[in-house]
Amino acid sequence: MRRGRSGALPKGAVGRTLTSVGTIGVGAGEAPDAVGAADAVGAPGEATRMWHVTLSLSGAEAPLRDVRQALERLAHDHPFLLTSRYANDHAEIRYWEEARDLHDAAAVALRLWGEHRSTAKLPPWEIVGLEVIDRDTYHQRVAEGYGPPPAAPVGVHPY
Fold first, then answer.
1. Beta strand residue intervals within the chain, DSSP E
2. 118 burial class (0-12, 13-18, 19+ CB within 10 angstroms)?
3. Strands across the sheet with 155-158, in order?
4. pTM (2 d.p.)
5. The dihedral sign for the CA sequence 24, 82, 61, 67
6. How far apart, in whole angstroms, are the C-alpha atoms of residue 7 and residue 121?
7. Most C-beta atoms within 10 A of its C-beta, which of 4, 36, 83, 124?
8. pLDDT in single tens digits along all 159 residues of the chain
9. What are the C-alpha distances in Å from 82 to residues 23, 28, 101?
């Protein structure tokens, strides 16, 4: 579960069994270099890594205004979301997740849309794509010019 700038969990947050911690003070498109052990959620001493997650969703058309407002609510509830792009029948969410391994990061990502569908009033779309890559791979792709550009501007934007 991501913590807000104050260090508190978001209102109504439910703890996870998977490792996931905050990224306080991290700039757009960047992951922190290290996270203190006191910040970790999970077993003490577990090593965690940063994973760049891209979640793609698709489904029946919905009004653009409703899609934007739903994604903004999701971003407000979960400030770790870096950027979202949307159209009336699909969306893409990109963010950094800290987890013990790729399996944990992917499991959290696969639950994100469904767990927040009702609270954020998200469209009833299905996940049609998921990419989870480690920090080094993300930066290598960007440096070589074939990866996703850094998430700027941060926020919710139409395609």
1. 49-58, 81-86, 90-99, 126-134, 155-158
2. exposed
3. 126-134, 49-58, 90-99, 81-86, 155-158
4. 0.70
5. positive
6. 26
7. 83
8. 444 433 333 344 333 333 333 333 333 444 433 333 333 344 556 799 999 999 999 999 999 999 999 999 998 887 777 889 999 999 999 999 999 999 999 999 999 999 999 999 999 999 999 999 999 999 999 899 887 666 556 788 888
9. 11, 7, 20
